[in-house]
């Protein structure tokens, strides 16, 4: 079985985003970028499935600028076998991403597509569900546990108030949640080996997908500064204060 793992290049989660002076978007100049954390979990899970002998190949794919090669090389260093970069400088929206992934999946014919439940830059949480719909495949979202058994995969999902277990017939789509696993660090020898692993470059036009945005961002701004709190001496003072503010 082959596993396809989409990964996205995003601002590193330790970096505080800065808004451009003209309010047109987030400033990416001289900012550390890395693999989306949820996608990193997806890569780890795919590699673990391969290591268990239930998959033969892990293919990483990314849609983004040329610098996304660095993200793919990270996936290769973790243990992916080869990578595909669909190069574009457009800000590709989830539907276009899903259409490109559908075209790649039809060429690669993976038994399983594992991707992060969302990207930390836009928090859309749409691509996995859209891909499953476009391909007519069963889906297991917000995966807490993934178990491949023959021609099926059992996914324990994190839902409001508990866990739900679903059994999907392969081929299927799975999106990962935070508690699925702890991604491994890429060792220096594996980083060096990753430079020699195959990485193909394509474009959205190769798959007949229009990446023109359907949404228009009118303005991006920093959240309002939180006002300082006020200490009170006792409960009576708290009640008096709340009444003065009109909330009690």
UniProtKB/TrEMBL annotation:
Entries under InterPro entries matching the protein: ET-Flavoprotein_bsu_CS, ETF_a/b_N, ETF_b, ETF_beta_N, Rossmann-like_a/b/a_fold
Keyword Chloroplast: no
Top-rank taxon, per record: Bacteria
Domain spans labelled Electron transfer flavoprotein alpha/beta-subunit N-terminal: 23-211
Gene Ontology process terms (BP): carboxylic acid catabolic process
Chain residue ranges for the region called Disordered: 199-229
UniProt GO molecular function: electron transfer activity
Keywords annotated in UniProt: Electron transport, Transport
Transmembrane region(s): none
Cofactor(s) demanded: AMP
Assembly description: Heterodimer of an alpha and a beta subunit.
PANTHER family: ELECTRON TRANSFER FLAVOPROTEIN BETA-SUBUNIT, ELECTRON TRANSFER FLAVOPROTEIN SUBUNIT BETA
Family statement drawn from the similarity comment of this UniProt entry: Belongs to the ETF beta-subunit/FixA family.
Summary of the function given for this chain in its UniProt record: The electron transfer flavoprotein serves as a specific electron acceptor for other dehydrogenases. It transfers the electrons to the main respiratory chain via ETF-ubiquinone oxidoreductase (ETF dehydrogenase).
Protein name per its UniProtKB record: Electron transfer flavoprotein subunit beta
Organism of this sequence: Alteriqipengyuania halimionae
Lineage: Bacteria, Pseudomonadati, Pseudomonadota, Alphaproteobacteria, Sphingomonadales
